[in-house]
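Hi support team,

I'm filing this because I wasn't sure whether my run with NAP finished correctly. The job status page said complete, but I'd like someone to confirm that the output block is well-formed before I use it downstream. Pasting the exact inputs I used:
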Amino acid sequence: MHGYQFSASQEEVLVQGPRVLVTGATGLLGRAICQEFESGGWIVIGTGYRRARPRFLRCDLTDEGAVKRLLHEHKPEVVIHCAAERRPDVMEQHNEAAVDLNVHATSMLAKEAAVCGSLFTYISTDYVFDGRNPPYGEDDSPNPLNEYGQSKLDGEREVIRHCPGAVILRIPILFGEVETVTESAVTSLWLKVLEATEESCTLDHCLQRFPTNTQDVATVCRRLAERAQQDPSIRGIFHFSGKEQMTKYEMAVAMAQAFNLPSNHLIPLTELPADLTSRPVNSQLNCSRLELLNLSVEPQAFTAAITDCLWPFTADKRWRQTVFH
Ligand code: NAP
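And here is everything the job wrote out:
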């Protein structure tokens, strides 16, 4: 069914407290953001689309009327806009639908947030950069190499056009608590690690990545929102990133080592395959703006954080007890 279908519950209206509207609340990052704001005492209004029911509101953000009703009915103090098509290959194949979500829906949300006086936070990506001259500061010129990066950059421009007081948070490749290992490009590597009994398995060892924990991004979003409510200078572009530079090959080896599994079947691929040439080689983000404002978080070490995410997908669930206790 199309559009926005829930109205605020009476209970929600009666409860006093700051309200945050999180789009993409069913997604990898949105789930972590909802949890973080909830535990920080915020009233969270989460929206999803296909996976929305029963926990979240169902709202097709490409439906202009639905977006208007959503914002005007809830009048949140803060909007965190996570919903997007973020898979570069899907973006190339279903370009019109993806642009509709990444650009037009963003534009409508930013416009309505400005009308309602909500602080708008747009989640963007390191893929706005070409990766040829890292690290990238907030003021460096974007030059996306693929449709996904271009659509997110177009989204940023719509946000600035309609909502000059908005915050744009650029982040790199994410991992976190996943519903299935394939939900994140990082946890997907677990499947390669488990192929130890099969033939050898090649993994990219060219593209430099900075895997970033959704929990850390969520904390940064809450800190930004809380500070911005008191300080109007908190606006514009911010960068946040994990600190460990790794290729996918290195991430997979780290996972294997963390679980005492063999890694000698993993073969580093040192020449970039043709299907990856439209990805930035190294789009490292300089995060000093957030750090100077004391709004950043110190990321947990990759090995510890990824172990927490993967243990539910290990064959032997007793493993966790034997390691942590
Ligand atoms: P995700 O897991 O793919 O979630 C996408 C979300 O968008 C889901 O909640 C989905 O709802 C919602 N959605 C899809 N179509 C919609 C529509 N027509 N109307 C309303 N909602 C719709 O994405 P993510 O990984 O959490 O990414 C969050 C943000 O971080 C995105 O802006 C992305 O560009 C950015 N980012 C992600 C990464 C990464 O590695 N994942 C890296 C850098 C930046 P349903 O599932 O309920 O349909």
